[in-house]
Design a protein that fits this description.
Layout (H helix, E strand, L loop, with lengths): L1 E2 L1 H14 L4 H16 L10 H9 L10 E6 L2 E5 L5 H19 L1 E9 L6 H9 L3 E6 L20 E5 L6 E5 L6 H10 L8 E2 L5 E2 L2 H4 L11 H18 L4 H4 L8 E8 L7 H16 L15 H13 L1 E2 L2 H8 L2
Parallel strand pairs: 3-4
Antiparallel strand pairs: 1-11, 2-3, 4-10, 5-6, 5-10, 6-7, 8-9
Helix pairs in contact: 1-2, 4-5
Length: 332
């Protein structure tokens, strides 16, 4: 079924009000969940809402808490999320990183004790709209085995890079597993196999079957051993910079909470050559667009291009939503 963007916003806004969120927070949450879905990221949009509500109802997410500064060191700050909603905390810390970048050229906010931020690209685009380059990452609960191991001991620690561009921002938003687990869940909802192996089954064999991957959450890292190593390094950086929880300490909780995140912004206007920057970006994009595709009728894209196209399409035609999921949300 298709749902309009405005209808989704309103239904989610009313839902969050029933959980005693303030009007301002309910609106922000509804906007972000709806925007994520509009851009085609259902796994961290509408499909994630029931789990978010479950965390709220269980008291894992503290609805009245917000991130607050714990230490200020010039262009670097540490913040404590106080286990508040991850979306609210991430928006706040992105704004602060942008402020620091415009003051110092670069600004870094390291956040501890927060909750899932949903689609990390939301905050990369937020920074890009403010004219900043963004380099953001988060750790997670363990859901990938370190390369060569059987048990999950590393997180798929999503990484976000955003670059402001006049004709459309560049946005890399990727988990370090071949598929984000929310994406694997999307395939499960549709009763489909993954297009490529996404994790290991109970027999330690790589599988494309969501039903065999999801129960134990043993995702396949991107680049095999390289993705595994990058996952560990990002966990180390997020933990050290924020003085927060590592994936190991997150694993001690029954639910994923108290995670650590980093928001690094660079203000390229400081160089005073904006036109040159835009020309260089477009030169790179044109060079990669101008290549013969392997399959007839196919083409290449820069990071974030397809999600922007999906957003425009869904604005015009409505957002495709699983009917069972929509009814579930209306019943919450």
């Amino acid at each position: 079924m298709n749902v309009s963007f405005q209808q989704m916003q309103q239904v989610l806004y009313e839902l969050f009000l029933t959980r005693s969120f303030s009007g301002e927070k309910a609106r922000l949450l509804a906007d972000v969940f709806s925007e994520n879905t509009l851009s085609g990221v259902h796994s961290h949009g509408i499909n994630r809402v029931p789990l978010f509500i479950e965390y709220v109802d269980k008291g894992i997410i503290h609805i009245d808490a917000e991130a607050e500064m714990a230490a200020s060191l010039g262009s670097i700050e540490r913040w404590d999320g106080r286990l508040g909603p991850g979306i609210v905390n991430a928006v706040k810390c992105t704004n602060r990183a942008v402020e620091l970048a415009k003051l110092h050229g670069m600004g870094l906010v390291a956040l501890r004790n927060t909750n899932h931020w949903m689609r990390g690209g939301t905050y990369g685009l937020q920074a890009a709209e403010a004219g900043c380059i963004a380099l953001f990452f988060t750790n997670t609960q363990p859901n990938m085995p370190p390369w060569g191991g059987k048990e999950s001991r590393t997180g798929n620690n999503p990484l976000v890079v955003a670059i402001p561009r006049k004709e459309g921002h560049i946005l890399l938003d990727m988990a370090l597993s071949q598929f984000a687990f929310g994406k694997i869940h999307d395939y499960q909802l549709r009763g489909e196999q993954l297009p490529f192996p996404g994790g290991w089954d109970d027999n330690h064999q790589l599988s494309s079957d969501p039903e065999k991957i999801l129960p134990n959450e043993r995702g396949l890292p991107i680049g095999y051993w390289k993705g595994s190593a990058l996952s560990m390094v990002l966990d180390m950086l997020a933990t050290l910079l924020s003085a927060g929880n590592s994936t190991f300490r997150i694993s001690q909780h029954e639910y994923e909470t108290g995670i650590s995140q980093v928001f690094l912004c660079i203000y390229p206007e400081m160089f005073g050559d904006r036109d040159l920057q835009q020309r260089l970006l477009n030169e790179i994009i044109d060079y990669t667009h101008d290549v013969e595709p392997m399959s007839p009728g196919d083409r290449t894209y820069f990071p974030g291009e397809r999600s922007a196209m999906t957003r425009e399409k869904n604005l015009k035609e409505g957002i495709p939503v699983d009917e069972g999921t929509w009814k579930n949300i209306q019943g919450l």
